[in-house]
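Run log, item B.
One chain of 495 residues. Sequence copied directly from the ordering sheet:
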Amino acid sequence: MDTILAGVELLLRWDVLVALFIGSIGGVIIGAIPGVGPAVAIAILLPATYSLEPLVGLVMLLGIYGSSIYGGSLPAILMNTPGTAVNALTTYDGYPMTQRGEAKRAVSLAYSASFIGGILSVSALILLSPVLAVVAPMFGSREIFLAALLGMVLVVLSHRGKVVIAAFMLFFGIFLNSVGLEIVRYSRRYTYDQAWLNSGFDLIIVVLGLFAVSQALLLLTEKSETPKTPKLEGGIFEGIKEIFKHPRLAGVSSFFGIIMGIVPGVGEFTAQFLSYNYAQKTSKAPEKFGKGSPEGLVASEAANNAVPAAAMIPLLALGIPGEALTAMMLSVFYVHNVIPGPKLFQDNLDFVYALYIALILLNIIVFVFLLGFTKRIVRVIQIPTRFLGMSILTLSFVGIYSVRNSITDCAIAAVFGFLGLIFKRLDIPVVPIVLGMVLGGIMENKFRNALARVDTPLDFVNRPVAAVIASIIVLIVVAHFWSLWRDRQRGRSKS
């Protein structure tokens, strides 16, 4: 209880509360604008958060991360255009409800499901904290190395149909992280006598290029459009009452989101498809799914919003990010010398609880804001895409230059921006690049530390936790190749 009160005290500072409010409201607006998304917003804001205190900066980024999915449901329901990529499934039932004249009902139902998913996820996070505090110290260098390797495997295998290209992108990220002056023997790697490569590729510059600059270029090279939205009709509180008709579905969907959030590299897409399939199979009216089923909307939004808080579990307990957004947040920890992992729960548990309470307040702030200001947010959606692209490009380069006051960084970001644009045109995933840079650095560091305590490769798995993680990696890889072989056999039998 004393630790929780200490966390509340940390959070109840004016600068932290202002950061939470700005992040929460800003995240909703950013999520509601198709073509921007939380990754772009967080990438642009990252340089600014480096000058803030760690709690202030992280609370602002958490606000954007957690609230953007709320906002992304608005254009998905009203315009059949998901505000963020993970709101794609919301269009299946949200937009048909709008076409029936039930836009307000659909919007408020999505908000309510999102709120339940978010609160249940944070509750699970808080309940798991005592377990994490006990389990986290069991992770030494070997275990964290294997956990990072598990994260890499899951990230690659989660890209169904693009496993090979995702693996190449992951290794590209590892390569980028290895460029420059390494910190143990101070030897130069892949610098080719170029002084500007001695400091390597900064994660923030790469992230801004791949996400923000590339998105701006995409918006600028496409036909300029001003999205049109239908009028909001119906009672805003109708959907709030309706959520209580589906308590089991909201709970199970949130559970899927929590489990998928904990597992690195899986995330919202898997969670929502599992919950949507569950909802359809257990529904009394499965034929209505995809045609405006309230159950389908609840399943999608509850699962989506349960993921962000759950994704903080591997980040805080092990320092292992599960996707690009938590990888960006990890850089804020490192800049302020607050290292996620076992020692964080031992030495800074009040800091951890402050983040938990911030997640609860985030959901409350966003829910109340959306109920009162949905009509005004709809106007924000109607920003012309060319103007939006130019604004993102300007803010991106301002942020890039502010990191180290370097024109070279701007040039590097521009190159990665063009690369990101090409990857988007070719539908090649860029998230593995970011995770490769982050996890590659963690693995290299922990591998070097572990080598001082091992004599043979088998010594890496001679402890219980290490043996369990190694076994999981082997089982996942074997299961993947088994599924590929089975699919090939089925294809042959059909032909």
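Observations after the first pass:
- The radius of gyration is 22 Å.
- The chain is about 75% helix and 0% strand.
Flagged for discussion on Thursday.
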